[in-house]
């Protein structure tokens, strides 16, 4: 399943890294225009709230585009009700093609200097766009902005913060991303991402094969292209409602199989980008099957499937994917001793965004500050 890297062929690790530099960005206008791109599929119950949150910003967007992926519910009717009131919303009715095709359609039709993404089941906090614009202006070399998310349940009740523990990455992360097999940890989901147009133009269109997880293309390519600026505060609500893998509270082998395949494909997309910069840079790109997250997911998948390959997957994880001084990684080192039901519960706690996980972490933090 893993994609082998040519770095195993004797090429000097990191060869060509001097070619991996952030792209040059032009100065932003004093008051840059902002496009809000809302992607929707069968979210009639939520899309109105998403539109309201975009319209009620302290820094008004130049355009709000709702790109609909052939919803079969009343999503388009909800959007049309805003259009009929002259609120300047643009609706794109697309044939069903999945997340990447839907997002591509929105991007083709936008014109802003800054692009803010918004899933139709999420909402922006009122100061989101202003904070993102201020961050870009304060960090003129950054073409990728991120921030934390406030988790809310299906009724809109706040349930915690994401990312919960890790610091948000910022600055020039090109080498860190490269050396970690192309994965920069700590990046939030779609609604918490914004791009300068110069960077977005190099990423879009996203290959339509990414019918889900299209934002992962941004996660993988943007940190190799540009510096990041991070706003260390929640600027959006990320809704947990169980209809989306990313906010599911239960890990399954089938989900992991799909995500590992996506990671393989994304690694190849990154390698193609690196080849466009320098052939040696691509040849020495570390293999995805040496990344700690990939190795953990592969081990979990084998273990849940009662697969004989679990022993080798565990050995690979211990050899390549664990840090000696990490307390969390100590769990993985001894996880092979856990009975499967307990292993499953522990994995769900570590890798998903459950309310219980938020409560436990807050309690631990509270004890540490006493």
Characterization of the model:
There is one protein chain. The protein is α/β, with parallel strands linked by helices and 370 residues long. Helices cover 41% and strands 16% of the residues. The protein contains 14 helices and nine strands. The protein has helices spanning 47-55, 75-83, 99-108, 128-138, 174-179, 197-203, 215-225, 253-277, 279-283, 292-304, 310-321, 327-334, 340-351, 355-369; strands spanning 34-40, 63-68, 89-93, 114-119, 123-124, 142-152, 158-162, 193-196, 227-239. Strands 1, 2, 3, 4, 5, 6, 7, 8 and 9 form a nine-stranded mixed β-sheet that branches. Strand 1 (34-40), helix 1 and strand 2 (63-68) form a beta-alpha-beta unit. Helix 7 runs parallel beside helix 8 (253-277), helix 8 (253-277) runs antiparallel to helix 10 and helix 10 (292-304) runs antiparallel to helix 11.
Which properties best describe this structure?
370 residues, alpha/beta, nine-stranded mixed sheet, 14 helices, 9 strands, 16% strand, disordered N terminus
SSE layout and pairing:
Layout: E1 34-40, H1 47-55, E2 63-68, H2 75-83, E3 89-93, H3 99-108, E4 114-119, E5 123-124, H4 128-138, E6 142-152, E7 158-162, H5 174-179, E8 193-196, H6 197-203, H7 215-225, E9 227-239, H8 253-277, H9 279-283, H10 292-304, H11 310-321, H12 327-334, H13 340-351, H14 355-369
Parallel strand pairs: 1-2, 1-4, 2-3, 6-9
Antiparallel strand pairs: 4-8, 5-9, 6-7, 6-8
Helix pairs in contact: 7-8, 8-10, 10-11
């Amino acid at each position: 399943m893993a994609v082998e890297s040519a770095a195993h062929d004797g090429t000097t690790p990191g060869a060509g890294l001097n070619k991996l530099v952030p792209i040059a960005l032009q100065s932003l206008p004093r008051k840059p225009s902002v496009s809000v791109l809302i992607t929707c599929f069968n979210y009639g119950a939520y899309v109105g709230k998403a539109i309201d949150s975009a319209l009620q910003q302290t820094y008004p967007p130049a355009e709000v585009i709702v790109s609909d992926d052939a919803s079969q519910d009343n999503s388009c009717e909800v959007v049309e009700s805003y259009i009929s009131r002259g609120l300047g919303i643009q609706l794109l009715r697309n044939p069903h093609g999945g997340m990447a095709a839907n997002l591509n359609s929105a991007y083709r039709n936008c014109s802003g200097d800054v692009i803010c993404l918004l899933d139709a089941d999420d909402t922006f906090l009122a100061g989101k766009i202003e904070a993102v614009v201020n961050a870009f202006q304060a960090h003129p070399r950054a073409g990728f902005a991120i921030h934390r998310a406030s988790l809310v349940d299906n009724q809109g009740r706040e349930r915690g913060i994401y990312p919960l523990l890790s610091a948000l990455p910022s600055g020039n992360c090109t080498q860190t991303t490269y050396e970690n097999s192309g994965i920069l940890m700590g990046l939030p989901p779609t609604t918490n991402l914004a791009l300068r147009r110069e960077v977005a133009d190099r990423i879009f269109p996203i290959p339509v094969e990414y019918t889900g997880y299209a934002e992962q293309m941004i996660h993988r390519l943007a940190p190799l292209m540009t510096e990041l600026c991070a706003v260390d505060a929640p600027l959006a609500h990320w809704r947990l409602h169980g209809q989306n893998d990313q906010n599911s509270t239960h890990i399954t082998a089938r989900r992991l199989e799909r995500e590992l395949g996506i990671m393989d494909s994304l690694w190849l997309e990154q390698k193609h980008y690196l080849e466009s910069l320098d052939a040696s840079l691509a040849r020495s790109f570390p293999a995805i099957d040496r990344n700690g997250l990939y190795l953990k997911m592969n081990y979990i998948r084998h273990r849940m499937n009662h697969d004989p390959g679990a022993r080798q997957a565990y050995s690979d994880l211990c050899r390549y994917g664990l840090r000696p001084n990490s307390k969390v990684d100590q769990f993985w080192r001894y996880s092979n001793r856990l009975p499967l039901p307990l292993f499953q519960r522990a994995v769900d706690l570590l890798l998903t965004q459950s309310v219980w996980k938020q409560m436990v972490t807050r309690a631990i933090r509270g004890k540490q500050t006493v």
